């Protein structure tokens, strides 16, 4: 008789795979029923991975009875019961119901200056508010670090202080802790409506980490575990688009740390081929949303009737494929006008599932002193790439297109 393979999980914090039976637990640190209390110490795994040096109770394995569905175990030291499930690699506490609900790792990547940190902040803010109301979705941080970091570092700075975040420091991907959220949506089925939960993990990598193939391998290993990719490109880094930009728009610098979007895409493609073991004649199956940022700087030059001059449909809680395909075709045509046709060639030759998008995180260019425009933040189509990926991963309903 063939023994069924144990399910493999991927940690949403360190992106390392492990078998479900390897899930560990952390002692509560409280006085156990046997009168003992486990001593709190620095966790060398957390310290080495994320520089988290606080004293914590010990981690233990529940042994042969461990599965991803086991929600509690007794500490062998103090005898106390714990519900804190732990990744066996980095010792991060896993989200509630991890292994029992969908876990989608969405990789957000892009070259230096594309505005990844701003985009991630605005996207999550929109998912929690405008988009959340449309889809009746609940989007919450899955751990204390995510809830505190996103509110105090990201939202506070951009939405309340109106200050653009500093550039992400390169070369420290191993030390940056991802933001992990749980997205809960209503899904209709044969047995009525039920909640569909998806755990998503966002990792803010520095654009400089994509300059060489070696840094891609080192700092973006999470691509190997990603279920979908949002590739953020700045059209103003393309010669044709720079010439078409609205007068007065601040153009991105061109220096040794800034690379052409084509080169970034080429290196990411190489890593994905190696990671998934694909032969040269087989296309990559991972869905990729290729999103052109800062589209507000170019909208004045779009022809009347352009899908990038209208608001996306928002009357139904589904992803509108017809509208998305219209944007896709328009952006593809723009790529050729902007002298970015190589991007389209790479996508057509190497990817089985991809879609083009145009968006603006802020709605207007920032001021000269790196502050939000005085008229405020009014994002345009920022959620489209993420919603398309969720529809591709069967986590969100969509129209036929």
Give structural attributes.
401 residues; alpha/beta; 10 helices; 27% helix; disordered N terminus
Task: Note the topology.
Elements: E1 8-10, E2 17-19, E3 24-26, E4 41-42, H1 44-50, E5 55-56, E6 59-60, E7 73-74, E8 81-82, E9 84-86, E10 102-110, H2 116-128, H3 130-135, E11 138-141, H4 144-160, E12 179-189, E13 192-202, H5 213-219, E14 228-233, H6 239-244, H7 261-276, E15 288-292, H8 321-337, H9 341-350, E16 354-358, H10 384-392
Parallel strand pairs: 10-13, 10-14, 14-15, 15-16
Antiparallel strand pairs: 1-2, 3-6, 3-9, 4-5, 7-8, 11-12, 12-13
Description:
The protein has 401 residues and is α/β, with parallel strands linked by helices. Residues 1-5 have low confidence and may be disordered. The radius of gyration is 22 Å and the shape is elongated. Strand 1 and strand 2 form a beta hairpin. The protein is built from ten helices and 16 strands. Helix 2 (116-128) packs across helix 4 and helix 8 (321-337) packs across helix 9 (341-350). The strands form five sheets. Strands 11-12-13-10-14-15-16 form a seven-stranded mixed sheet.
In brief, what are we looking at here?
About 25% of the residues lie in helices and about 20% in strands.
Largest sheet: 7 strands, mixed
User: What radius of gyration results from the CA coordinates?
Assistant: 22 Å
Strand order of the largest sheet: 11-12-13-10-14-15-16
- The geometry reads as elongated
| Mean pLDDT rating | 85
Helix content: 25-40%
- Helical element count? 10
Task: Report the structural category.
Answer: alpha/beta
């Amino acid at each position: 008789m063939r023994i069924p393979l144990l399910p493999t999980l991927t940690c949403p914090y360190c992106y390392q795979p492990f078998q479900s039976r390897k899930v560990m637990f952390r002692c509560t640190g409280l006085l156990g029923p046997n009168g003992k209390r486990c001593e709190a110490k620095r966790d060398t795994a957390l310290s080495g991975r994320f520089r988290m040096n606080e004293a914590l109770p010990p981690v233990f394995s529940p042994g042969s009875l461990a599965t991803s569905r086991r929600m509690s175990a007794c500490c062998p030291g103090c005898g106390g019961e714990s519900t804190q499930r732990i990744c066996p690699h980095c010792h991060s506490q896993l989200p509630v119901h991890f292994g029992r609900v969908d876990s989608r790792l969405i990789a957000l990547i892009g070259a230096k200056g594309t505005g990844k940190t701003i985009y991630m902040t605005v996207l999550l803010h929109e998912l929690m508010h405008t988009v959340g109301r449309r889809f009746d979705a609940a989007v919450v941080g899955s751990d204390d670090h995510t809830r505190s970091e996103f509110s105090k570092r990201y939202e506070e700075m951009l939405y309340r202080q109106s200050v653009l975040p500093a550039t992400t420091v390169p070369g420290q991907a191993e030390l940056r802790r991802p933001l992990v959220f749980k997205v809960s949506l209503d899904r209709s089925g044969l047995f009525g409506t039920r909640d569909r939960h998806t755990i998503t993990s966002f990792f803010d990598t520095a654009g400089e980490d994509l300059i060489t193939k070696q840094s891609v391998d080192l700092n973006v290993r999470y691509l190997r575990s990603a279920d979908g990719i949002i590739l953020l490109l700045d059209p103003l880094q393309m010669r044709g688009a720079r010439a078409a930009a609205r007068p007065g728009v601040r153009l991105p610098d061109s220096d040794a740390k800034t690379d052409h979007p084509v080169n970034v895409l080429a290196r990411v493609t190489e890593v994905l081929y190696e990671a998934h073991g694909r032969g040269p004649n087989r296309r990559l199956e991972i869905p990729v949303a290729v999103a052109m940022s800062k589209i507000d700087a170019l909208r004045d030059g779009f022809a009347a009737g352009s899908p990038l001059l209208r608001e996306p449909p928002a009357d139904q809680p589904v992803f509108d494929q017809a509208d998305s395909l219209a944007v896709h075709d328009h952006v593809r045509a723009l790529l050729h006008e902007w002298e970015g046709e190589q991007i389209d060639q790479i996508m057509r030759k190497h990817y089985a599932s991809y879609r083009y998008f145009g968006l603006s995180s802020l709605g207007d260019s920032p001021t000269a002193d790196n502050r939000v425009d005085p008229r405020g933040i009014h994002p345009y189509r920022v959620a489209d790439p993420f919603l398309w990926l969720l529809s591709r991963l069967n986590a969100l309903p969509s129209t036929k297109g």
